[in-house]
Amino acid sequence: MNLGSPDSPEVNDVKRYLRQFLMDGRVIDVPYLIRLFLVKGIIVPSRSANSAAAYSTIWTKKGSPLVEFTKQLRQAVQENFDEPVEIAMRYGNPSPQEVYKILLKKKPGLEEVILMPLYPHYAMSSYETAVEHMKEVHQKNKYTFELTTIKPYYNNPDYINALAESMKPYLQDYDKILFSYHGIPERHIRKSDITKSHCLSSAGCCEIDSPAHDYCYRHQVRTTTQLVVDKLNIPSEKYEISFQSRLNDKWLKPFTDIRLEQMPGEGTKKLLVVCPAFVSDCLETLEEIAERGKESFIKAGGESYSMIPCLNTNPLWVNAITKWIKEL
Questions:
Q1: pLDDT reading at 249 higher than 90
Q2: Number of continuous H segments (helices) and E segments (strands) in the chain
Q3: How far apart are CA 180 and CA 198, in angstroms?
Q4: What pLDDT was estimated at residue 269?
Q5: Nearest to 263 by CA among 225, 319, 301
Q6: What separation in angstroms does the CA of 93 have from each of 106, 127, 224?
Q7: Among 124, 147, 149, 120, residue whose Cα is nearest residue 311
């Protein structure tokens, strides 16, 4: 299961997609009527045209890159199984209900569906909403088959190995690696804290053991980064973490767009950017980072800039998913 995409880069399709995405209470977590006013009255009317223009710069002959990469991943995983492998999207098409119907048609005696969320880290606006939506559709339709979900794999050695190996070919000549993760509001971190007292309570809270870490996005992205740089023997002065796609100043910091403008002035002229929160290249990697990010960095005085592609259909990634499913 992946995030999803508009059916086309046309403004009306983008509007439809944004309404579904932003009306999710785990994405914009305010009371329904306020969310309705914000989304349908302000955000969608004001941002649809710009979003459509952004999508049009990455759209391919086959359609949305995210959807196409997810289809390719499905095919690669399917080669390792006799059982049917299908894809679902949290927003847009194909919907969970459509996919459940396809699976039942292919396997009338279906006993179990294994859900593989394409989100390595736990966040209420990504992993949680995808999993809970699949559960809700499952319960609403009173399906008799079991639904089993693969847990966040931010620290799983197979994921770390696949990510590290995908980065190796790019580590020839660079000043710094920027690990750019999708940003989330700080309030989401606090809401997901099952202890209600640990997350963001101190500067070093992510390094202090706590049950909260099972649901803490900030801790998990830091863990992923540390495991990868340890595996690749990257010294501390050669990398940093930032957060992209922010909406306001109350989101996790530092902000990727700001750092891209600052780094050349600090001596970083040759930059690599990797986006481990995404396993499939999409609008946020191809347009925001590879296009606009590069433009900002070079304009600020940078000399070379490369975005390392997402895992997409990397054979080690395909093998990792296959292994996890078979181990259940």
A1: no
A2: 12, 8
A3: 24
A4: 98
A5: 301
A6: 19, 18, 30
A7: 120
Name the residue with tokens 């909406």: 247
CA distances for 171 relative to 164, 166, 270, angstroms? 10, 10, 11
Q: How far, in Å, CA of 166 to CA of 189, rounded?
A: 29
| Kind plus residue range of the DSSP H or E element containing 112 | strand 112-115
Q: Domain residues of the chain, as ranges?
A: 2-58, 65-152+315-327, 157-307
Nearest to 42 by CA among 55, 56, 53, 28: 28
Q: Is the dihedral of CA 62, 63, 65, 71 positive or negative?
A: negative
Give the CATH number of domain 65-152+315-327: 3.40.50.1400
Q: What's the mean pLDDT when you consider all of the chain?
A: 97
Pairwise CA distance, residues 78 & 41, whole Å: 43
Tell me which of 3.90.110.10, 3.40.50.1440, 3.40.50.1400, 3.40.640.10 is the CATH number of domain 157-307: 3.40.50.1400
Fold match between 65-152+315-327 and 157-307?
Answer: yes
Average pLDDT of span 36-51: 97
* CA end-to-end distance (rounded Å), the chain: 17
CA distance 293 to 273: 9
DSSP result, 256-305: HHHHHHHGGGGT--EEEEE-TT-SS--IIIIIIIIIIIHHHHHHTT--EE
Q: What tokens does 210 get?
A: 């706590």
Residue type, 110: L
Is the link from the previous residue into 254 a cis peptide, with omega within 30 of 0? Answer: yes
